[in-house]
Specification:
Radius of gyration: 27 Å
Distance between the termini: 42 Å
Largest sheet: 6 strands, mixed
Order of helices and strands: HHHHEEHHHHEEEHHEEEHHH
Strand order of the largest sheet: 1-2-5-4-3-8
Number of domains: 3
Shape: extended
Helix content: 40-55%
Number of strands: 8
Strand content: 15-25%
């Protein structure tokens, strides 16, 4: 483990320093007293002290994190066996537990009821000025409802130009809150990890298998909520954010941008765009999307919808 290797290297460094101190130090004291002195100096090293006590093992480290840093332990989700008959898993950080930890912090809880929608009609300065927020039943009836902004993206953990590219690619799902001030939403302290999974596993097992636990927890959050400071707080997803590829993946659209129907916003075709670069097709609606899904056959892409 990385931390064990680092501690081993640090111990060698401390031993080398103590050896040089012993060689250079000239005091009128006995060897036993000198050994006691050098041991005291060595054991006073903070990293050595921590790793020989409450951070010594993985179990002790997690115990310390949970009691001191409001650590939320991830849950391992079993996806099944892939085409190579290998067991595959995803890691999910329970979203309700993460929110409970966040709202135990006063700087977060104090922003829960701040009204960001305080400008003149027709002026858009924040996501709460839009119709999606205004037409949501939960946000209409509960001013302190949690506005969850989910973000999904894939990233490489090895050289993206090497032979192992895409082999170890990871899909990450993160969360921030629309309740906090806009300039704080991108602050690393407010961005929380929700889920990690290999991209190949997502493609093989499908989104329903991967996101089922997250969706279940989101439904529970919307219907039942949780209690903080004697107040029941509910919440729901306000928006799902991502780049083009991530948004097409989560929305069930074609992930190729050279196909005939490449746009998730409207039904424009590629040949139309070539002839008229500034034109748009008929905008997609939830009703038109559902209609295509009901009519299409398995593994057949219809109007850009998989």
């Amino acid at each position: 483990m990385l931390i064990d290797e680092f501690q081993g290297l640090h111990s060698l460094s401390i031993s080398s320093i103590m050896k040089q101190v012993n060689e250079k130090l000239s005091l009128s004291i006995s060897k036993d007293q000198l050994h006691e002195l050098t041991s005291l100096v060595q054991n006073s090293d903070l990293l050595t002290y921590c790793n020989n006590n409450f951070l010594k093992t993985d179990y002790l480290r997690k115990k310390f994190y949970k009691s001191n840093f409001m650590y939320v332990e991830p849950i391992q989700i079993y996806l099944g066996r892939n085409k190579y008959r290998k067991h595959c898993y995803a890691q999910y950080v329970p979203i309700k537990e993460t929110l409970k930890s966040l709202f135990k912090q006063e700087q977060v809880y104090s922003q829960l009821t701040i009204n960001h929608d305080n400008l003149e009609p027709g002026i858009f300065s924040d996501i709460v000025n839009g119709s999606v927020y205004r037409n949501n039943a939960l946000f209409k009836n509960a001013s302190n409802a949690i506005q969850i902004l989910l973000y999904q993206d894939a990233f490489e953990i090895v050289n993206p130009l090497g032979s192992a590219r895409k082999k170890h690619k990871i899909v990450g799902v993160y969360m921030t809150l629309g309740n906090v001030m806009p300039h704080q939403r991108l602050n690393i302290d407010f961005i929380q990890l929700v889920l990690l999974c290999k991209e190949n596993d997502l493609k093989f097992f499908g989104q329903e298998k991967l996101f089922s636990k997250l969706v279940s927890d989101l439904k529970d959050l919307e219907n039942g909520g949780f209690q903080i400071n004697d107040t029941v707080i509910k919440g729901t997803v306000l928006s799902i954010i991502g780049d083009n590829l991530g948004s097409h993946t989560i929305g069930g659209f074609s992930e190729s941008f050279i196909v005939e129907n490449f746009c998730r916003y409207c039904d424009i075709r590629k040949n139309m765009l070539i002839q008229k670069p500034y034109c748009t097709g008929d905008f997609r609606t939830p009703e038109s999307y559902d209609s295509i899904v009901e009519q299409k056959q398995d593994n057949v892409i219809v109007d850009g919808i998989k």
